[in-house]
Amino acid sequence: MSDAKPEFLQRHRVPFDGQFSVRDFSCDPPAGTPSKKDLEGELDDLVNRLDKLQQRLFADERYAVLTVFQAMDAAGKDSTIRKVFSGVNPAGFRVHAFGRPSELELQHDFLQRVVTRLPERGKIGIFNRSHYEEVLVVRVHPEFLAAQHLPDVDLKRIWDERFESIRNFEQHLARSRTVVVKFWLNVSRKEQKQRFMSRIEDADKNWKFRLGDLDDRERWDDFQAAYESMLRATSRQWAPWYAIPADDKGYMRTAVARILVETLEGVNPEFPTLDDDRRRELQEGLKRLEQE
Description:
Elements: H1 5-12, H2 36-60, E1 64-71, H3 77-84, E2 93-97, H4 103-106, H5 112-115, E3 124-128, H6 137-140, H7 158-175, E4 178-186, H8 189-201, H9 212-218, H10 220-234, E5 241-245, H11 249-267, H12 276-290
Parallel strand pairs: 1-3, 1-4, 2-3, 4-5
């Protein structure tokens, strides 16, 4: 994974022209991927760099970062978040996992519940699932719309309308200096089967499996079509999607970490510059401590 930054980002970035095809993005790492050991070493280095960048982001207080993860079940969202942010100060980031909306949330527009979880300046916010559930799960299961108290639903228009709302919402965030970076972890149907079986056969993983997971698996093609439409409509320069091969967890985690590091390096947050008054204050503090 030593190629130049633009080439690496472009390899995984979903194009902005609406021409994306799920079939064009492999679930397997590209040829020439380093060994598992080398990937682990690179991930360690990236985690350290991310920690230093987060410290600068926190001190700078001019930018926020919103990181979105979407994927089919068992793609590795939880473990990727855990590994990539393992070295980051917990005070500097917050993870929110979105499940089914509550009754109160259903009384609002579909973006309201994520708005209340947005990161403040200086922080990294991580959405494990997100507002995109409304154009994925709800699109595959349009019967869920009945609980949203909408007076008039046109299934021929609602998804394009929601895409437009999402694009406008994320562009507003970008204009407000929230850096939006989104990851689609692209797991294959074959690999998902193996991971589901592991969850059933390994007692320590039993808690992860729900029989209902297989219901969505039976709608695999419908979900892939929904992902394709979503990625085409909402990958934009101000809020890019990255399609990450997810059948190899080592590559997936390292790729996510590298994209985050390079994105933050592009923002280049800085420690505050000290003015003369602040420098005098520091010298006075040092003097008082030395006199104790």
